[in-house]
Amino acid sequence: MPFPENEGKYSYADYLTWPEDERWEIMDGIAYMQAAPSPVHQGISAGLVAQFYQYLLDKPCKVYAAPFCVKLLSGNEKKNEDIKRVVEPDISIVCDQTKIDDKGCNGAPDMIVEITSPSSAKIDKFIKFNKYEKAGVREYWIVEPDIKLVSVYVLQDTQRFGRPEIYTEDDRIKVSIFPDLIVDLKPILT
Q1: What is the pLDDT of residues 115-150, one digit of tens each?
Q2: How far apart are CA 68 and CA 90, in angstroms?
Q3: H-type alpha helices, 1-154
């Protein structure tokens, strides 16, 4: 749900002043409050994070679960007031650890997973999809618990997400940014 006051004017500087027990995102200066995740959502997130975490042990890439702040920078932001895109993806994988500071990630993660809910589906499938593509996220998964589908988008040479690969709860996904990682959906979506 968008925050109506000062619509289009919010920045990372504002985000830093908001209560830590509330989850907010800012897209092009518009603030959106996130609903608390459901138990199903939490279970899917935990299952995916466990598989990613196990694979990434002893590797330079790290997995981060929400709440985890990601500032989608365009490159010309000099101050916190200039940053107008702040998201909290359900799962982020970051390979360049120089992007990580004590507040989160500065720039695009290599991979993002969003788990939709009725209140977030439009944002995850449209607004965030476009922001993640433009920011250079290499792989983007949209998990839809209600219909047990996962759509996987991979950034192409054209800097656009290609046509999605669609998976169901009986499938295993070969992760494009880690060719030797296969994520089993059965224990996560069934």
Answers
A1: 999 888 899 999 999 999 999 999 999 999 999 999
A2: 8
A3: 12-15, 39-56, 121-122, 128-135
State the DSSP code for 2: B
**pLDDT tens, position by position, 47-56:** 999 999 999 9
Q: Which of 161, 165, 139 is nearest to 151 (CA)?
A: 165
Written as six digits, the tokens of 105 are 């990630």
Q: How many CA atoms lie within 13 A of 57 on its CB side?
A: 5
Q: Which two tokens stand for residue 38?
A: 């459901």
Cβ proximity of 26 and 77 under 8 Å: no
Domains of the chain: 12-189 (3.90.1570.10)
